[in-house]
Amino acid sequence: MTTTHAYGADEQQFLELTLPAGSDPAPVAVVLHGGFWRAAYGVDLARPLAADLAARGWAAVAVEYRRVGTGGGWPTTLDDVAAALDLLPDLPDADRLDLSVLAVVGHSAGGHLAGWAAGRHLLPAGAPGADPRTRVTAAVLQAGVLDLELAAGQRMGDGAVTDFLGGSPAEHPDRYAAASPTRMAPTGVPVLCVHGEADTTVPPEQSRRYAEVDPAAEVALVDGDHMVVIDVAGPAWQITTTWLDRHRTAGPHRPTLGP
Questions:
Q1: What single-letter DSSP state applies at residue 257?
Q2: Among candidate residues 190, 250, 245, 180, the one with its CA nearest the CA of residue 219
Q3: Burial class (CB within 10 angstroms; exposed 0-12, middle 13-18, buried 19+) of 23
Q4: Where are the alpha helices (DSSP H) in the chain?
Q5: Three-class secondary structure of residue 193 per DSSP
Q6: Cα–Cα distances in Å, from 72 out to 13, 32, 50, 190, 211?
Q7: 95-124, pLDDT tens digit by residue?
Q8: What does DSSP say about strands 14-18 and 59-63: parallel, antiparallel, or unpaired?
Q9: Can you give the pTM of this predicted structure?
Q10: Which residues contact residue 46 at a Cβ distance below 8 angstroms, ignoring those fewer than 6 apart?
Q11: Is the separation of the CB atoms in 225 and 231 below 8 Å?
């Protein structure tokens, strides 16, 4: 069963929780959709992944958030993702959520948001998303936009990064420092980067770049393009779910609740 919950007043500020069968608490997987942070793309991209994760025993959370063109961008989109994650302990079905295991899975711009969410606990006071109430314990970054400075310089997505952050790295260095996963890594959170070798939308160098700054991160390069990593019937998704299953148990070195 899937239920919808608002984490803010805007019509785009909601999440969808799909619980697995049974009555016991389940590990939690939050799915963050992509689309270059733009309003043209929405939570429908996350729903098939969330449904598959719920069938595999996860409490799956698909998050919608404000995007560029409908009130999103800096810092709104980041605030929304943080608010959605921090709402989890207050959901009506919170007793079914084992928040000691909180994985984030994100594709493309959602991969950026998942990488950012994994490092929220390192943000300085006052930064968007700082002082998290919930802590991520594992992150899968699917064809993620992870080095925002590099992506902005390449005009990836026809200027999607500068649209998202309101300007170039030279104009807003503080925003790039607070939003780019490669500037936040290593986070101490286990990370898997999955990327299609033939991806021309977000080149695989984005995942390689993340691994350069977080040597503990795992990188899986697969055959295919930008969308192959979210095909729930494909081998890339099997890599993702197998990796997530290895991280279903929270370790003592991975606290889940913020101060």
A1: B
A2: 190
A3: exposed
A4: 47-55, 76-87, 109-118, 148-153, 156-165, 173-179, 181-184, 205-213, 235-246
A5: strand
A6: 11, 15, 23, 28, 29
A7: 999 999 999 999 999 999 999 999 999 999
A8: antiparallel
A9: 0.95
A10: 31, 32, 33, 62, 63, 110
A11: no
